[in-house]
Write a structure and sequence with these properties.
two-stranded antiparallel sheet; three-stranded antiparallel sheet; binds zinc ion; mainly beta; globular
Length: about 110
Amino acid sequence: MSTPPHLSTTWGPNESAAFNDDLEASFMLAPSAKGKRLTFIGKCPYCAGPVNYTVDLELVPSVPGAPVGQGVSELVTVIECTCTEPHPGRPPGTQGCGQRWTTVVEVAK
Ligand SMILES: [Zn+2]
Ligand SMILES: [Zn+2]
């Protein structure tokens, strides 16, 4: 898979923007030492910019009805783009292209 170039799209949520499934699927998970946070590292499926987004597991709701067993639970969480490339219209002091997306991860208990 080749990495597409960064798209300097106008900042903000845009549900009609193209979503790159390959980039979303290539995200890696870096659990912290204490296991209460998950860090997602990859490329934004919208703008292809670098994303390093940390989720506090205590703030992530468990999925109603999700299968639980074998010491693994399934989490649905939202990742926000944190790319540092320029996007027109981005509010000062913020990162990313303004897009967010939902992902499902399996987390060992
Ligand atoms: Zn982005
Ligand atoms: Zn970007």
